[in-house]
Input
Amino acid sequence: MKPPRTLFRLQRREPQRSVLMAAGLFLVIGLILQGWRLWSLNATYDQGLFLQEIWNGHLGKPFESTLASELSTPVLVNREALPTLGYYHLGQHFTPLLMLWLPLVLLLGVWSLPLIQVGLLTAGGLVLHQLAKEDLEPRLANWIAISYFCAGIVIGPTLENFHDLCAIPLLSFSLLLGIRRRNPWLYGIPALLLPLVREDVGLLSFSFGLWMLVRQRQAWRLAGLGLCLYSTLMVFTITNHVMPLFGSEVSVRFMDERFGQFLAAQNGRGSTVDALKAMVSQPLLLLQELVQPIGSTLKFLITLWLPLAFLPAAAIDGWLLMAGPLFVALSSQGGNALAVNLRFVLYLVPGEFAGGILWWAQHPALFHERWLKRLWRTALVLSVLFTITGNPHRSLSALIPDSVQPWVYISPWRQLQRGAETRELLRTIPRQASVAAETHLVPLLAERRVLLRFPENSAYTDERKQEWPAEWIVSQPGFNADYAPAFRRNGAWVRRSQEQIQALLASGHYRVHRCDQRGIVLRHLSAAADPKGEPSTETGASCVRQQFEEARAQMQREGDASKR
Output
């Protein structure tokens, strides 16, 4: 995100200016990389899902999303229903603050979400700097802020598909700054808003309240108790009473995905209260889950504290400030729980850096030791290098291969060309039409009420449960074939898309609207369109076969090459 040499050059300048330059670099580079992800088709499903649910707000249907419906219990888990128009994403995540961004989404469309995400995370670092200056000398506060902008646990989530957690650092550091400045408004507003970012962010605000009870003076202990009670009430009310009004995902899908090992007696299903009871009744299993797998847990904790050179990890403040989210991360099952490049690690960022400030406030003289500065510099360089070489979310694919063994690398020129060709292909689709498109195309088509992921779905039901086919189908077999040697799901998409498209054409309800190296567009016969330029039925079917044959031949050649 920021070249190490530039980092050290910044530190020799006046602190305030250095932090502003670091924040500016973070903002500009983050926006460039996010823009590249969108243009090169590396932004995927969640980018479109959040765009659709916010965009629907101007129709008087905030949080409605057919993309979210594909992840609902009836569709994804039970596989007994089609995606539904009128489904609200609030059944999966309670995120009311997202509607604040509706005006910007209507103004900038798909480009608004990168600006929101990178902007909020940059602002969080600037507020952190203000918090650090309350207790630390200027240059030490400067190091803390620059460490934030160099941290892989911040850079990774910044470059991810848009997510609802990007407001966490800004609100959290503002809350802590309010405590430090004894400003009830600066404390109270973020405290009230944090559980409204997403339902489980209440665990983070609970941790803040716990820290206030244990570590703050008498004046703030009562506020800490109130924050604990408010956070607990919000988490349980939202997850047990509000979200079930919109869907059964909390009790059926999420409890099984995260805490199914504790709820085995209930087939992985239950409420948040059931999960807590199950943990308390199985202390040995809970202890095992908290420490195992030991290797992954240690790697996670090392990466977490690396940007601050590990020293603040010796103090209790950081651990208290992130107690709730860290407990959930360590006790959860699944690979995402300990993934340091994903959005979930943002739950831990405020506690780590605020804990670092509190540790340094007690050891200010150590900052002047040369060995300490060398250690900290080395840790920051490693944090940046590990992040870059990991190519988070394919944001650096113009420079770094997506896979080394087998080799998968798409040149920058080809990615630019592919982005332009794809946008030209999609211009033939009316803006309000219903569409089913492959995952990498979802963000570009999300400003409409009906958008489905293909080949998973090509039909939906309306509010009256009447079934409707998607008016347009879009597939790019060549795109997925490029990544198939290293990523099995891309190869599976090629095969399944071919089967689905052949079946749709054979049904007689669709015809080929466009077909060439850029991709395949099918039009339902009920969809209004200018037939000028459409191939004949025979020519279109022949082109579709050819495109999939070429894609599968490419997959075969590259697969054979990777084995040699």
Notes: The longest strand covers residues 510-516.
